[in-house]
Every structure is written in structure tokens, then in C-alpha cells.
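Let's practice the habit of predicting before peeking. Look at the sequence and jot down your guess about where helices and strands might fall. Then scroll down.
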Amino acid sequence: GMRSHGPAAWSAAVSDAAAVPSTVGATPTILQAAWRDQPSLFLPLPPAEQTWAHAVSSWKDLTDALNDPHITAIEADVLMGSLHRGGPHPSDLIPIMAHPPSKVSDLSCDDFVRACVQHGRKHIKLDFKDLDAAAQCAPVVRGFAERLRQNGQ
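Done guessing? Here is the structure:
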């Protein structure tokens, strides 16, 4: 469903981390160090008010969200599961877009990120449900980092 949210929690967390002195001697936290060394990773921040498409977990959901002019941001859960596009056999476990407890989707994390970057006008939030999915998706997202920044995503 769609609804507007207040300030993005992650941008508040980044700002708070940058403003708060480290509690471990003079060693900055990871966020503080990243903010200091590469502020472009965090800027520009998206506008505080967004209209979200939540739990986008299929090609249909993603296409609808990308084509809806009122949607400004897309949130989706990522977990290890089977990619099933109507054939007789689902894939081995890969990062897919699915809302627990489902473990099957027609949309992989790779395809989700590629489609969002190609569209280029919606903010995206990936909610990783397990560490394997995060570890396998990180290189995909990292590969699009410059395009995501250029798009303001």
C-alpha cells in the first residue's frame, strides 16, 4: 500500500552518527568515518516526505510502482528463496524479492535493482531478511553505486 512517511530513519541515523562523538576513545564509528571520508555516499538525501510502495515482491508490483507517478519510493524485502517464473522447476536459492513467509518470487534482487536503476526516478529501500541475501546483493548494489548517486536514488 501507499502512505507518506516522515524523515527517513536512515538519514537521521547518519546525521546523528556524524554529530555524536565516538564512545570508544578517539576511534570514530563506521558511520562517522564514512560520513567524514566520503560524504557523497550519503548526499543528496531524499526528501523527508515520500509516498511508498511497500512489500514490492513481484514483477507486477514493481512495474505498477515504477509506473505510478504518485509513488516516490519503493520498499522491498530481500531473502534467500527460489526464483519461479512459471516453469516446472524453481531455481536454486538466490536473493529474491519476497515478503516472509514466502520463499518464492518471480523477481530476483538483481533484476529489482537493475529495473529501479534503469527507471532512475524512485528511491529504493531494501529490507534484507537474512545475511546471505545481504552478502549476495551487496556487490550488485555496489556495482550500481555511481548510477544510484547520479539518479539521486
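How did you do? The beta strands are 4-5, 50-53, 73-83, 93-97, 104-105, 123-128.
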